[in-house]
Amino acid sequence: MTELRHFLDLDSVDAETLRSMLDVSARMKNAGGNETALAGKTLAMVFEKPSTRTRVSFEVAMQSLGGKVVILEPEGSQLGRGETVADTARILSQYVDLIMYRTSSESNLLEMADAASIPVINGLTDWSHPCQIMADVMTYEEVAGSISDRVVAWCGDANNVANSWIHASAQFGFEFRIASPEEFRPTTRIMDWAETHGARVSVSGDPVATVTGADCVVTDTWVSMGDAEAAKRRTALEPFRVNAELMARAADKAVFMHCLPVYRGDEATAEVVDGPQSVIWTEAGNRLHAQKSILLWCLLGGAGLA
Ligand code: CP
Protein backbone atom coordinates (compact mmCIF):
# COMPACT_ATOMS: atom_id res chain seq x y z
CA MET A 1 0.00 0.00 0.00
CA THR A 2 1.30 3.49 -0.87
CA GLU A 3 2.38 5.48 2.19
CA LEU A 4 0.01 8.37 2.89
CA ARG A 5 1.43 11.89 2.73
CA HIS A 6 0.19 13.23 6.06
CA PHE A 7 1.24 16.78 7.03
CA LEU A 8 1.34 16.31 10.79
CA ASP A 9 4.39 18.32 11.83
CA LEU A 10 7.41 20.08 10.39
CA ASP A 11 9.61 17.25 11.67
CA SER A 12 7.66 14.60 9.76
CA VAL A 13 8.28 15.99 6.25
CA ASP A 14 11.81 16.22 4.83
CA ALA A 15 13.49 19.62 4.49
CA GLU A 16 13.74 19.37 0.70
CA THR A 17 9.98 18.86 0.36
CA LEU A 18 9.25 21.74 2.75
CA ARG A 19 11.51 24.01 0.68
CA SER A 20 9.76 22.92 -2.54
CA MET A 21 6.41 23.73 -0.92
CA LEU A 22 7.53 27.27 -0.10
CA ASP A 23 8.89 27.75 -3.63
CA VAL A 24 5.58 26.60 -5.14
CA SER A 25 3.58 28.76 -2.72
CA ALA A 26 5.56 31.87 -3.66
CA ARG A 27 5.21 31.04 -7.34
CA MET A 28 1.43 30.60 -7.07
CA LYS A 29 1.10 33.79 -5.06
CA ASN A 30 2.95 35.76 -7.74
CA ALA A 31 1.76 34.08 -10.91
CA GLY A 32 -1.34 32.02 -10.06
CA GLY A 33 -1.69 28.59 -11.63
CA ASN A 34 -2.97 25.16 -10.63
CA GLU A 35 -6.60 26.35 -10.74
CA THR A 36 -7.86 22.88 -11.65
CA ALA A 37 -5.15 20.77 -10.00
CA LEU A 38 -7.52 19.42 -7.32
CA ALA A 39 -10.71 19.25 -9.40
CA GLY A 40 -12.86 16.38 -8.17
CA LYS A 41 -11.14 16.30 -4.75
CA THR A 42 -12.85 17.10 -1.45
CA LEU A 43 -11.29 18.28 1.80
CA ALA A 44 -13.06 17.63 5.13
CA MET A 45 -12.12 20.14 7.84
CA VAL A 46 -12.78 19.03 11.41
CA PHE A 47 -12.67 21.78 14.03
CA GLU A 48 -12.78 20.98 17.74
CA LYS A 49 -11.52 24.51 18.48
CA PRO A 50 -12.45 27.89 16.99
CA SER A 51 -10.66 29.33 13.99
CA THR A 52 -10.83 32.28 11.64
CA ARG A 53 -7.62 32.14 9.57
CA THR A 54 -7.17 28.38 9.30
CA ARG A 55 -10.80 27.81 8.40
CA VAL A 56 -11.15 30.48 5.75
CA SER A 57 -7.68 30.14 4.23
CA PHE A 58 -7.97 26.36 3.81
CA GLU A 59 -11.45 26.67 2.34
CA VAL A 60 -10.41 29.34 -0.16
CA ALA A 61 -7.16 27.48 -0.97
CA MET A 62 -9.01 24.26 -1.75
CA GLN A 63 -11.61 26.05 -3.86
CA SER A 64 -9.01 28.01 -5.79
CA LEU A 65 -7.27 24.74 -6.69
CA GLY A 66 -10.56 23.42 -8.07
CA GLY A 67 -11.58 21.31 -5.07
CA LYS A 68 -14.47 21.25 -2.61
CA VAL A 69 -14.72 21.51 1.18
CA VAL A 70 -16.99 20.14 3.91
CA ILE A 71 -16.73 21.28 7.54
CA LEU A 72 -17.47 19.30 10.71
CA GLU A 73 -17.69 20.65 14.24
CA PRO A 74 -18.47 18.66 17.42
CA GLU A 75 -21.83 20.44 17.92
CA GLY A 76 -23.05 19.45 14.49
CA SER A 77 -21.63 15.95 14.25
CA GLN A 78 -21.47 12.67 16.18
CA LEU A 79 -17.97 13.58 17.39
CA GLY A 80 -19.72 15.75 19.96
CA ARG A 81 -21.77 12.73 21.11
CA GLY A 82 -18.84 10.44 21.67
CA GLU A 83 -18.17 8.83 18.29
CA THR A 84 -14.47 8.13 18.34
CA VAL A 85 -11.88 10.03 16.36
CA ALA A 86 -10.75 6.77 14.75
CA ASP A 87 -14.29 5.90 13.63
CA THR A 88 -14.71 9.44 12.30
CA ALA A 89 -11.49 8.99 10.33
CA ARG A 90 -12.73 5.72 8.81
CA ILE A 91 -16.04 7.29 7.82
CA LEU A 92 -14.52 10.44 6.33
CA SER A 93 -12.09 8.29 4.35
CA GLN A 94 -15.11 6.83 2.49
CA TYR A 95 -16.38 10.23 1.37
CA VAL A 96 -13.51 12.67 0.95
CA ASP A 97 -9.87 12.73 -0.22
CA LEU A 98 -8.15 14.64 2.59
CA ILE A 99 -8.76 15.70 6.21
CA MET A 100 -7.63 18.88 7.97
CA TYR A 101 -8.04 18.50 11.74
CA ARG A 102 -7.83 21.10 14.54
CA THR A 103 -7.90 19.59 18.01
CA SER A 104 -6.47 20.27 21.45
CA SER A 105 -4.92 16.89 21.69
CA GLU A 106 -1.95 15.65 19.71
CA SER A 107 -3.07 12.07 20.45
CA ASN A 108 -6.42 12.81 18.74
CA LEU A 109 -4.53 13.99 15.66
CA LEU A 110 -2.40 10.83 15.63
CA GLU A 111 -5.52 8.68 16.12
CA MET A 112 -7.11 10.42 13.12
CA ALA A 113 -4.00 9.86 10.98
CA ASP A 114 -3.60 6.22 12.06
CA ALA A 115 -7.20 5.31 11.27
CA ALA A 116 -7.64 7.34 8.07
CA SER A 117 -6.89 5.84 4.67
CA ILE A 118 -6.43 9.36 3.25
CA PRO A 119 -3.90 12.11 4.15
CA VAL A 120 -4.41 14.17 7.32
CA ILE A 121 -3.19 17.76 7.88
CA ASN A 122 -2.54 19.18 11.35
CA GLY A 123 -4.59 22.39 11.63
CA LEU A 124 -3.23 23.01 15.17
CA THR A 125 -2.90 20.95 18.32
CA ASP A 126 -1.63 21.93 21.75
CA TRP A 127 1.73 20.54 20.61
CA SER A 128 2.25 22.28 17.28
CA HIS A 129 0.96 24.47 14.45
CA PRO A 130 2.98 23.52 11.35
CA CYS A 131 0.74 25.20 8.72
CA GLN A 132 1.18 28.52 10.51
CA ILE A 133 4.96 28.29 10.49
CA MET A 134 5.07 27.42 6.79
CA ALA A 135 3.26 30.73 6.21
CA ASP A 136 5.60 32.48 8.64
CA VAL A 137 8.79 31.29 6.94
CA MET A 138 7.26 32.17 3.57
CA THR A 139 6.48 35.65 4.89
CA TYR A 140 9.95 36.23 6.32
CA GLU A 141 11.54 35.25 3.00
CA GLU A 142 9.10 37.36 0.99
CA VAL A 143 9.88 40.53 2.92
CA ALA A 144 13.51 39.97 3.98
CA GLY A 145 15.15 37.24 1.86
CA SER A 146 16.40 33.77 2.79
CA ILE A 147 15.81 32.77 6.42
CA SER A 148 18.89 30.55 6.38
CA ASP A 149 21.33 31.59 9.15
CA ARG A 150 19.07 34.45 10.28
CA VAL A 151 18.08 34.91 13.94
CA VAL A 152 14.45 34.58 15.03
CA ALA A 153 13.69 35.70 18.62
CA TRP A 154 10.59 34.47 20.45
CA CYS A 155 9.33 36.37 23.52
CA GLY A 156 6.72 34.99 25.91
CA ASP A 157 5.03 31.63 26.33
CA ALA A 158 6.95 28.89 24.50
CA ASN A 159 3.77 27.25 23.28
CA ASN A 160 2.67 25.04 20.36
CA VAL A 161 3.57 27.74 17.81
CA ALA A 162 7.07 28.02 19.31
CA ASN A 163 7.42 24.21 19.01
CA SER A 164 6.80 24.46 15.27
CA TRP A 165 9.31 27.32 15.03
CA ILE A 166 11.84 24.99 16.69
CA HIS A 167 11.13 22.28 14.12
CA ALA A 168 11.48 24.91 11.38
CA SER A 169 14.80 26.15 12.73
CA ALA A 170 16.35 22.75 12.00
CA GLN A 171 14.55 22.26 8.69
CA PHE A 172 15.33 25.74 7.29
CA GLY A 173 18.66 26.37 9.05
CA PHE A 174 18.11 29.45 11.22
CA GLU A 175 18.85 30.27 14.87
CA PHE A 176 15.85 30.37 17.21
CA ARG A 177 16.19 32.18 20.54
CA ILE A 178 13.50 32.02 23.22
CA ALA A 179 12.94 34.41 26.13
CA SER A 180 10.39 33.05 28.61
CA PRO A 181 9.71 32.97 32.33
CA GLU A 182 10.70 29.65 33.94
CA GLU A 183 7.16 28.24 33.93
CA PHE A 184 6.55 28.88 30.22
CA ARG A 185 9.74 27.48 28.75
CA PRO A 186 9.96 24.76 26.06
CA THR A 187 9.40 21.19 27.17
CA THR A 188 12.18 18.65 27.54
CA ARG A 189 10.62 16.78 24.63
CA ILE A 190 11.05 19.62 22.14
CA MET A 191 14.49 20.62 23.44
CA ASP A 192 15.67 17.00 23.15
CA TRP A 193 14.36 16.99 19.58
CA ALA A 194 16.22 20.24 18.87
CA GLU A 195 19.47 18.82 20.20
CA THR A 196 19.12 15.55 18.32
CA HIS A 197 18.41 17.37 15.06
CA GLY A 198 21.10 20.03 15.34
CA ALA A 199 18.65 22.92 15.73
CA ARG A 200 20.28 26.10 17.02
CA VAL A 201 17.86 26.85 19.86
CA SER A 202 18.61 28.75 23.07
CA VAL A 203 16.42 29.64 26.04
CA SER A 204 16.83 32.49 28.49
CA GLY A 205 14.91 34.69 30.90
CA ASP A 206 16.33 37.87 29.39
CA PRO A 207 14.19 39.34 26.57
CA VAL A 208 16.68 42.12 25.81
CA ALA A 209 19.62 39.75 25.30
CA THR A 210 17.38 37.42 23.27
CA VAL A 211 16.15 40.12 20.90
CA THR A 212 19.45 41.97 20.49
CA GLY A 213 20.51 41.75 16.84
CA ALA A 214 17.61 39.46 15.87
CA ASP A 215 16.24 39.58 12.32
CA CYS A 216 12.72 38.63 13.34
CA VAL A 217 10.86 39.07 16.64
CA VAL A 218 7.87 36.80 17.27
CA THR A 219 5.35 36.41 20.04
CA ASP A 220 1.92 34.85 20.60
CA THR A 221 -1.19 35.21 22.72
CA TRP A 222 -0.60 34.92 26.46
CA VAL A 223 -4.06 33.77 27.52
CA SER A 224 -6.11 31.10 25.77
CA MET A 225 -9.90 31.15 25.80
CA GLY A 226 -11.36 30.23 29.18
CA ASP A 227 -7.93 30.11 30.85
CA ALA A 228 -8.56 30.24 34.60
CA GLU A 229 -4.98 31.28 35.21
CA ALA A 230 -5.20 34.46 33.12
CA ALA A 231 -4.12 36.90 35.86
CA LYS A 232 -1.20 34.71 36.94
CA ARG A 233 -0.03 34.29 33.34
CA ARG A 234 -0.17 38.04 32.68
CA THR A 235 1.95 38.78 35.75
CA ALA A 236 4.61 36.24 34.81
CA LEU A 237 4.71 37.23 31.13
CA GLU A 238 4.60 41.02 31.51
CA PRO A 239 8.41 41.48 31.32
CA PHE A 240 8.34 39.64 27.95
CA ARG A 241 5.90 42.00 26.22
CA VAL A 242 7.22 43.17 22.84
CA ASN A 243 7.28 46.96 22.92
CA ALA A 244 9.08 49.59 20.86
CA GLU A 245 12.01 49.67 23.27
CA LEU A 246 12.55 45.93 22.87
CA MET A 247 12.12 46.08 19.06
CA ALA A 248 14.82 48.78 18.99
CA ARG A 249 17.30 46.15 20.23
CA ALA A 250 16.68 43.98 17.16
CA ALA A 251 18.54 44.38 13.85
CA ASP A 252 17.80 47.56 11.89
CA LYS A 253 15.58 45.84 9.36
CA ALA A 254 14.03 43.35 11.79
CA VAL A 255 10.40 42.38 11.30
CA PHE A 256 7.71 41.67 13.89
CA MET A 257 5.51 38.60 13.45
CA HIS A 258 2.47 37.20 15.27
CA CYS A 259 0.24 34.35 14.11
CA LEU A 260 -2.91 36.15 15.37
CA PRO A 261 -5.29 36.72 16.99
CA VAL A 262 -3.31 39.43 18.79
CA TYR A 263 -4.20 41.14 22.06
CA ARG A 264 -2.67 44.62 21.92
CA GLY A 265 -1.27 45.60 25.28
CA ASP A 266 -0.70 42.00 26.41
CA GLU A 267 1.98 40.18 24.42
CA ALA A 268 2.81 43.21 22.25
CA THR A 269 2.00 46.90 22.30
CA ALA A 270 -0.27 48.44 19.66
CA GLU A 271 2.71 50.56 18.59
CA VAL A 272 4.58 47.40 17.55
CA VAL A 273 1.59 45.42 16.22
CA ASP A 274 0.52 48.28 13.97
CA GLY A 275 3.99 49.74 13.43
CA PRO A 276 6.26 49.81 10.37
CA GLN A 277 8.19 46.64 11.28
CA SER A 278 5.06 44.55 11.64
CA VAL A 279 4.33 42.08 8.80
CA ILE A 280 1.34 40.43 10.45
CA TRP A 281 -1.14 41.06 7.63
CA THR A 282 1.17 39.59 5.00
CA GLU A 283 1.73 36.69 7.41
CA ALA A 284 -2.01 36.07 7.77
CA GLY A 285 -2.50 36.38 4.00
CA ASN A 286 0.23 33.85 3.33
CA ARG A 287 -1.68 31.14 5.18
CA LEU A 288 -3.69 30.85 1.97
CA HIS A 289 -0.66 30.48 -0.30
CA ALA A 290 1.39 28.24 2.02
CA GLN A 291 -1.53 25.86 2.47
CA LYS A 292 -2.12 25.52 -1.26
CA SER A 293 1.20 23.74 -1.65
CA ILE A 294 0.49 21.56 1.41
CA LEU A 295 -2.80 20.47 -0.19
CA LEU A 296 -1.06 19.81 -3.52
CA TRP A 297 1.67 17.74 -1.90
CA CYS A 298 -0.71 15.70 0.26
CA LEU A 299 -2.91 14.82 -2.71
CA LEU A 300 -0.50 14.74 -5.65
CA GLY A 301 2.96 14.26 -4.08
CA GLY A 302 6.01 15.55 -5.95
CA ALA A 303 3.90 16.05 -9.08
CA GLY A 304 1.88 18.65 -7.18
CA LEU A 305 5.05 20.63 -6.48
CA ALA A 306 6.49 20.42 -10.00
N1 CP B 1 -3.28 31.67 13.58
C1 CP B 1 -4.36 30.88 13.50
O1 CP B 1 -4.26 29.65 13.43
O2 CP B 1 -5.55 31.55 13.46
P1 CP B 1 -6.98 30.87 13.66
O3 CP B 1 -7.03 30.35 15.07
O4 CP B 1 -7.95 32.00 13.44
O5 CP B 1 -7.15 29.76 12.67
What can you see in these coordinates?
The chain has 12 helices and 9 strands. It has 306 residues and is α/β, with parallel strands linked by helices. The protein has a 5-stranded parallel β-sheet. Helix 4 (106-115) links the parallel strand 3 and strand 4. The chain binds phosphoric acid mono(formamide)ester (CP). Residues 51-54, 124, 132, 259-260 line the site of phosphoric acid mono(formamide)ester (CP).
Describe the structure concisely for a colleague.
The chain has 306 residues and is an alpha/beta fold. The protein is 42% helix and 14% strand.
Oligomer: single chain
| SSE topology string | HEHEHEHEHEHEHEHEHHEHH
Indicate the proportion of strand residues: 5-15%
Shape: globular
Which SSEs are present, and which pair or pack?
Layout: H1 15-31, E1 42-47, H2 53-64, E2 68-72, H3 85-95, E3 98-102, H4 106-115, E4 120-122, H5 130-144, E5 151-155, H6 160-172, E6 175-179, H7 188-196, E7 200-204, H8 207-211, E8 216-219, H9 230-237, H10 244-247, E9 255-258, H11 270-273, H12 280-300
Parallel strand pairs: 1-2, 1-3, 3-4, 5-6, 5-8, 6-7, 8-9
The chain binds phosphoric acid mono(formamide)ester.
Keywords, separated by commas or semicolons:
306 residues, five-stranded parallel beta sheet, alpha/beta, globular, binds phosphoric acid mono(formamide)ester, four-stranded parallel beta sheet, 12 helices
